[in-house]
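Continuing from the previous page of notes. For each protein in this section, the sequence appears first, followed by its structure tokens. Read the first protein now.
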Amino acid sequence: MSKYVIISNLTDEGAMTLRKNAGRIKEVNKELKEMGVNVTDQYAVLGNFDFITIVEAEDDINVMKAVIEIASRGSIKTATYKVIPIDEFIESLK
């Protein structure tokens, strides 16, 4: 499984949705799991971003398809990064 960081910002529509139903975040996490993307950690952020979500998936394609599906709803804008565990990175340098 590879790990990814998804940094996201709510749109105006997304903010209104959360104001009405804050539990929507957990509902979306369940939808991601059904798409093969497992949320391992998630944080609300004060600053330039609204959320940071750490996910695991079998491959890049599953993550991209899931992110496109979620973003297509108009509630959120995302930036997704594949990350490498530091021990794995160090080992690759040897």
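Done with the first. The second protein uses the same format. Note its length before scrolling.
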Amino acid sequence: MTLLKADHITKSYAGVHALRDASFELRAGEVHALVGENGAGKSTLIKALTGAVIPDSGEILLDGTRITENSPGISKSLGIAAIYQQPALFPELTVAENIAIGQERDGSVFGMVNWARRKQRAKELLDRIGARISPEQIAAELSMPQQQLVEIARALGANARVLVLDEPTASLSEDDTRNLFRVIRELRASGVGMIYISHRLEELPAIADRVTVLRDGQTIDTHEMADVSSKQLIQLMVGRELSGVFPKREVPRGEVVFELRGFGSREAGIRGIDLTIRAGEIVGIAGLVGAGRTELAKTIFGLVPPDTGVMLLRGKQITIGHPSEAIDLHISYLPEDRRRHGVVLDLPISSNITLASLKHLSGFKGMNFRKEKEIAAEYTRRLGVKTPAIYNAVSTLSGGNQQKVALSRWLVTQPAVLILDEPTQGVDVGSKAEIHELMMELAEQGVAILMISSELPELLGMCDRIAVMNGGTIAKVFDRTDATQDLILSAALGH
């Protein structure tokens, strides 16, 4: 039975079509995957379903009845709820208080909050999805998977019949992912319809019943999940055969560009790091959460002070006490969390791209805006950033295009050493292939690249050597010809 239907939805922004006659159908008790490249229209379609945007044309039907007026409040009252990649909990409130938001009058007496009833209601909802979380725990103390479970409990408390899950496993471990899938299956069995958005195509067969592909704002096709392969989905998403998601080419390795000897920082929790990177080499950093990968990158870049060992650039010892000193030495760092640290969402694309190069764009006469425009236009074109104008705010871009802007900023500085922390996390397969191709082009130009990734296939597919971290230090270094997923995981676990 069709539960929710988007019928021929069109939505434009400043003359650019985000959706063009797109359609989507969700059945009761179904997990329906929605896939597409960044900018394909997935977010706009979800916003239309949840009332955050009003379509220019088309209609949305719930149980066969057209929704004539819509807004986030109306869609919530109709049982449509969305849980995004970054959970939207109030950090200083308790779990019970967060679950009760929007349901304040439920269980109240004479307008007063019935605290006992509120806690009991939260416990019932958490128990329903098997979440071992205290209703009295402060939300700021919760892990990412716990926050997601609280959001699911809150949606169920509002009698959600349609649940949108946007990249729900992007920040989860394998164990947390398995637990989330268990919750999803239980909700499916109870008749809840779920729209599942994910760039991790390999996980879809384990959880989705059907899959719909969007491309350039249009619905391309809908398939039973069992009848379509990841390779076929990729071709539908990008509209072409990809030459390879991992376009690794052999590059002659030059001189040692960057070296660490006995490098460490008590504040960062890293110690005894010995590492070299040659010109044209891509060195990967693997390890479990908490192994010290990101902490190592931050210490190299001057965000955290080192207290042991030495750092050398082309054989000369260097000291970096601040990121500005790293930039002057042509050492660049693309951080893991692009929305918090990679881009400034409210600034224009042009300003974001030139943010690390202001010293070269300003003088006694002020900012050279003509030069800024030229640079922004060049790198927007070079990296294929999809935008109608370089003066649009970065917040208007899709996740993959935001990542391209963040990467452009560091390419403008002409880096000798480029540190990439999860460069393809949360981006679609087409953007991932483009970023990997760009990495290869930089390596061919002699850039020394250090890439941190939680995806073992990415490390194996792109790196010349892989250093595995455990307990704040490098436990093992593998050459690409010797590395396997099992060996890397074993070293990461300390075996």
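What the second structure shows: The chain is about 30% helix and 25% strand. The chain has a mean pLDDT of 88. We return to this in next week's lecture.
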